[in-house]
Specification:
- The chain has seven helices and four strands.
- A two-stranded antiparallel sheet has the order 1-4. The protein has a two-stranded antiparallel sheet with strand order 2-3.
- A hairpin with a 2-residue loop joins strand 2 and strand 3.
- The protein is globular and about 70 Å long.
- It holds the Pfam family DDE_3.
- This is Tc1-like transposase DDE domain-containing protein.
């Protein structure tokens, strides 16, 4: 309104250059795995290094010698021939995955939960942002992950009913 241009109630602060970090995380019905903060863009070699040092130890802890199927989207680093070879060499089956299908990927919902819990955080630098992400990720319960995994039949039905269009998931 006229005369209120500088009233603090009418102003919203903005950040011109917000902090950003690249994070890799994984989940199963048993809970969330440790996070990996990446220092560079993700190519096949970087991704395989993450799998080697983060996914394999977590899978070993969760599953031991039991079988599991790994799910990932079709990002270029994930679908590279070298990455496919890495999975074959390690005896890890990978779920065939349709392109552009975030509604079927429960970790997208998990990241949404993390972002909502962090919405009021105001980290001042990348290290504070990493600490906030770590602390928020640590609050994820195995029950939350289990519920997201259990929602898969409903997700699939919703995507089929929507004929591939976006759903509530």
């Amino acid at each position: 309104k006229r005369g209120e241009a500088q009233n603090p109630r009418c102003l919203r602060s903005s950040v011109k250059f917000p902090q950003a970090v690249m994070v890799w995380g994984a989940m199963s019905s048993a809970g969330a795995d440790p996070l990996c903060f990446l220092r560079s863009k993700v190519n096949a070699a970087v991704y395989q290094d993450v799998l080697e040092h983060f996914m394999l130890p977590a899978a070993d802890q969760l599953y031991g010698d039991a079988d599991f199927i790994f799910q990932q989207d079709l990002a270029p680093a994930h679908s590279a021939k070298a990455t496919s070879t890495w999975f074959k060499d390690h005896g890890i089956p990978v779920l065939n995955w349709p392109a552009n299908s975030p509604d079927l990927n429960p970790i997208e919902n998990l990241w949404g939960i993390v972002k909502r819990k962090m919405r009021h955080a105001r980290p001042n630098n990348a290290e504070e942002l990493k600490a906030t992400i770590r602390a928020t990720w640590a609050l994820i319960t195995p029950e939350q992950c289990h519920r997201l995994i259990d929602s898969m039949p409903c997700r699939i039905a919703a995507v089929i009913q929507a004929k591939g269009a976006p759903t509530k998931y």
